[in-house]
Amino acid sequence: MTYSIVACDLDAGHWGVATQSKFLAVGSVVPWAEPGVGAVATQSYANPAYGPDGLRLLREGLSAEDTLARLLEADEGRETRQAGIVDAQGRAATHTGTECHDWAGGRTGSCYAAQGNILVSAATVDALAETFEATSGPLAERLIACLEAAQAAGGDKRGQQSAALLVVEKNGGYAGLSDTLVDLRVDDHLRPIEELRRLYGIHQALFGRTQAEDWLDVDEELGAELRERLAALGYDGELADAMRRWSGNENLEERVDGVDRIDPVVLRALREAG
What is the pTM of this model? Predict the structure, then answer.
């Protein structure tokens, strides 16, 4: 009762999984990923061990195809399982057991594996694959677009309930100390993909990256505006300290780096604050 896509962007060093299901908290079971190693989706009477075991095999140097073969060989319930894997080189493999409920199947291509079960038709998996092949840009945004297209094509035969997005990058997460670039889950919602899109927008506002050349120099005039706006919000004192305290309270600290220059996203948030 799930569809998913595992994929990577080798140039960006991103690996990820996106999934939707008529199942509570699909993100707690299906998606697994490790930067420089690969990504795994496990579903349809899912065997959760496929996640950590699959990543371990990939880490040892096995290809996506060989990793999947090893997982299936060791699993007596293999014919009830469905899985997709992408490895460190972008090679992909997918499996749909003979006992998965119709419609069930998968597709692979360069840097992705798409699969689903209990679907309205094959069009859902086709939409995952075709959307990934036709899009460009950040992997997270492409994966959300894949889910949206898959749902529009029919989706899960039983309806919608939860969705999840996981994207990893080496040292790409919070404060450069985490490999988790995006980890968002909608555990129970009437329109989980729409809610996932909304949450991703908030995530990008707080933790996204604006290119350095697009940051603004803080000249005397802009500095005076910043001090005035911060003071009006109750953040008096030196500009650097006031900005640090305000951005921390607003969860925007990842977008602040001193006060000589300012991220336009931070400036907009401050102007909209009061």
Answer: 0.92
Rounded to a whole number of angstroms, the distance between the first and last alpha carbons of the chain is 46
In angstroms, the CA 227 to CA 169 distance is 36
Closest CA relative to residue 51, chosen from 79, 80, 17, 23: 17
**Sequence letter at residue 69:** A
CATH topology of domain 2-207: Glutamine Phosphoribosylpyrophosphate, subunit 1, domain 1 (3.60.20)
> What is the DSSP track for 16-83?
EEEEEESSTTGGGTSEEEETTTEEEEEESS--TTHHHHHHHHHHTT--HHHHHHHHHHT-TTGGG-EE
What is the residue extent of each domain of the chain?
2-207, 213-273
Cα separations in angstroms, 233 against 18, 127, 183: 39, 48, 31
Find tokens 């939409």 and name the residue: 127
What burial letters (b/e) apply to 192-206, b meaning 16+ CB within 10 Å? bbebbbebbeebeeb
Cβ burial of 170 (10 Å; 0-12, 13-18, 19+) is: middle
- Tell me the C-alpha distance between 15 and 183, whole Å: 12
Residues 6 or more apart whose CB falls under 8 angstroms from that of 257 comprise: none
Question: Could you list the pLDDT tens digit for every one of the 274 residues in the chain?
Answer: 799 999 999 999 999 999 999 999 999 999 999 999 999 999 999 999 999 999 999 999 999 999 999 999 999 999 999 999 999 999 999 999 999 999 999 999 999 999 999 999 999 999 999 999 999 999 999 999 999 999 999 999 999 999 999 999 999 999 899 999 999 999 999 999 999 999 999 999 999 989 999 999 999 999 999 999 999 999 999 999 999 999 999 999 999 999 999 999 999 999 999 7
Say if CB 211 and CB 253 are below 8 A apart.
no
